[in-house]
Amino acid sequence: MLEEVARLGPGATAAALSSRLSLPRATTYRLVNLLVDEGYLVRMPDLHGFTLGRKVVELAHLAVSSELAPSVAEELRTLRSFLRAGVHLLRYDGGRVTIADEDPDFPALDLPRLERDPSRSAAGRLLLAERRRAGLATEGMTEAEADHVLRSFDRDGFLSQSGGFVVGFGCVAVPIRRGLHEMVGCVAVSAPSSRLTSPDHLALRLHGAAERMAPALLW
Amino acid sequence: MSALLQAIASPPSSEEFAPTSRVGGLRRRSVGLPGTFAQSIAAVAPSASAMTMPAIAAQAAGQGTVWAVAVAVGLCLLVASCVNQFTRRMSATGSLYTFVARALGPVPGRVAGVMILIGYGSVAALSAAGAANSLIALGSRFQPRLLAIPLLPVAVAISGLVLVLLILAAGIRVSTGITLVVESVSIALVLFLLAGLVIVSSHQSTAPAPMPLPDLSGLGAGAVLAVPAMVGFESASTLGAESTRPLRHVPKVILITVVASGALYLVSTAGETIGFASVGQRLATSTDPAQDLAGISGMPVVGLLLEASIAASFFGCAIANVTAVVRVLYTMALDGDAPMTIARLAPRRRTPVVAAVLVSSVIVVVLLVPLVSGYSLTGTMQLLLLPASTGFMVAYLLLAAATPSFLRHVGEPSTRATVIAVVTAALLGVALVSYLTGQLSRAGWPATAVLLVVLGLASGLLLLQSRRSGRSRPGTAYDQPTADEVLGG
Q: Which residues of B touch A14 (CB under 8 A)?
């Protein structure tokens, strides 16, 4: 349905969609109204048909993750087979954390919450610390907290937390920088807290991978 | 690359989408499903109508009134189906005014607008009188001398309207919240009392009350008398801007209101028929069913609770109907069909205060004329019932007629919806004619005079509007999607 609206362009009517997709009209109307309800489609201001809503961009993120450069995929594969823990590639996009490549063997513990509430996970706090450095707003964290996190990060070069996101689990996040300063994402390892007793060793290995991945990421 | 991904990568132009909604001045996306529901159900005044309507309808349908009520519910379901073809696709604040104008053009739109204003306005005035009436009746049980105070009805009605104004000034969230509480209490009370009534009646007389199907003319006439009890269910369509998810909540609320109030009326009609039959009376002979039923139960407290419930129901109804009038006027002002000052919003609460004060003042005048001329509150209410019902029925008729045209206009034609719309319009036409001829022949010259005055006012308003028609574009002010909701916006 969304494909067809994209093909027809803004103003595609439900009747046109129904005939092009060979669906009964009533079914088309119901589907279209569902998509409008969810925000994937939007009615034109004069009510003559529909156009794509902003929410389809979220669908695009699913598409992006299947188009990682081979060298990046290889780095992630090596890390994952060595660490045998949840190794995830995350992207920082316009002040938001989004998953770029989730570990297929150890799925992220709570992806929606990770994306929604950055102040709880190491990956999210990394983003917030950088924003604090740039003087931007840090949602979910007070300025004092953000300062504290920033200091830890500057001291260690990575961020870790234990039990703050999910009880019994911890996470270590290492930045991926494009050029000298711009933090475009991070590599994060999520594992039971008992396995994260020496995060600095882990972070060293992750740093190496991050530096090798950075040039190949087209973010 | 698929067309979809291509569109995401380089989005098509979205220039037609404005950055803000035209009705965005109102407190956008602030009222949830309960509040939206409160608006529609309160506008119907379910408890008050549940008590008073069955006896009225029984004048035509006799002991089988419950069948006539069922027919009326069926007709309102058809109207709701037509209204929801609009509310599923358009989030608006102008109710049937915007919908008809969008589909049939400015002139029918303005007629529908003026008619729905008369409908909401008359019901608002009627409920103010009704609330005052029930309050005074309640008070007089404890202090009979209240009844002797001259102009007390006027004072109570005006105080009630001032209170309504204050509640509206507190903002739409507060006013819908209050309405929800008031109506819930009122409906719960009525249901409880009706249940009690049926139980008591079944003790007094084990013979089942017969409810025979009336003949066709009795059925039709009874149904037509029952329809006015259900009008107002569409008033949630004035909360398009303020509802959190209008395209979802408003159609749902409209349907639930018809079903819930219809169910309540069927229960109350059956209950009252049984109640009266158990003491050998017929429903149609009662002039004050609430008191008569209290008498049947033998417990004075029943009468007290009923009066309280009716007073609450009418009060909530007044709030809801003034809310609706105000928003239709606001929309008309935005479209150019009313002076722009009416669309002035209060700075913090974002409600149309100028419109609210104007409407309340008009209602006060409308109530004062009969009250000061010697009519009782009940008599005033009866005078207002005629313009109220007429206004709604004409507006519904126009809406049903507008539905097929609207569906074609948005590129979603449907044979089923068109058939429903045509049938609804035809039934409403018959109902309207039947209602008017029936009422005018029975009620005599005061009712005719009221109707003529109201129609005269309506025509005057329409004339004024058509003079500004160069600068007005009815049906354009509604909650259109904004640029930030669109891909690439």
A: 410-412
A15 closest CB neighbour out of B16, B411, B489: B411
ipTM: 0.73
Tell me which residue has tokens 């509040």.
B35
Torsion angles phi and psi, residue A97, rounded to 5: -95, 125
Interchain contact B89–A (C-beta under 8 A): yes
| pLDDT tens digits in sequence order for chain B, 489 residues long | 577 777 777 777 777 788 777 887 888 888 999 999 999 999 999 999 998 888 888 888 888 889 999 999 999 999 999 999 999 999 999 999 999 999 998 889 999 999 999 999 999 999 999 999 999 988 888 888 877 787 888 899 999 999 999 999 998 999 999 999 999 999 999 888 888 877 877 777 666 777 788 778 888 888 988 999 999 999 999 999 899 889 899 999 999 999 999 999 999 998 888 877 777 777 777 667 777 777 777 777 888 888 889 999 999 999 999 999 999 999 999 888 888 888 888 888 888 889 999 999 999 999 998 888 888 888 888 889 889 999 999 999 999 999 999 999 888 888 999 999 999 999 999 999 988 888 888 777 787 888 888 888 888 888 888 877 777 788 888 888 888 788 876
Between the CA of residue A39 and those of A28, B124, B410, what are the distances in Å?
A: 16, 37, 18
Cβ pair B319, B178 in contact under 8 A: yes
Q: What is the pTM of this model?
A: 0.77
Which residues, listed in sequence order, are joined to residue A182 by a DSSP beta bridge? A178
Between the CA of residue B86 and those of A141, B79, B100, B248, B403, what are the distances in Å?
A: 44, 11, 9, 12, 8
Angle at the Cα of A52 from the Cα atoms of A46 and A58, rounded to 5 degrees: 145
CA distances from B260 to B37, B184, B187, B225 (A): 11, 12, 11, 19
- Is B410 within 8 Å of chain A by CB? yes
How many angstroms separate the CA of residue B412 from the nearest CA in chain A? 5
Contact B12 A46 (CB under 8 A): no
Cα(B486)–Cα(A62) distance, integer angstroms? 19
Tokens of B233: 């269910």
Give the DSSP H/E element, type plus range, for residue B320: helix B300-335
In whole angstroms, how large is the CA radius of gyration of chain B?
23
d(CA B120, CA B142): 33
Considering only CA atoms, give the Rg of chain A.
21
- Chain A residues in contact with chain B using a Cβ-Cβ cutoff of 8 Å: 2-3, 6-7, 9-10, 13-16, 25-26, 29, 33, 36-37, 39, 42-49, 51-54, 56-57, 59-60, 63
Query: What is the secondary structure of A16-81 as a DSSP string?
Result: HHHHHTT--HHHHHHHHHHHHHHTSEEE-TTSSSEEEBTTHHHHHHHHHHTT--HHHHHHHHHHHH
The answer to whether the CB of A79 falls within 8 A of the CB of A87 is yes
Q: How far is residue B228's CA from residue B48's CA, in Å, rounded to a whole number?
A: 12
Q: Residue A171 and residue A163: Cα distance in Å, rounded?
A: 9
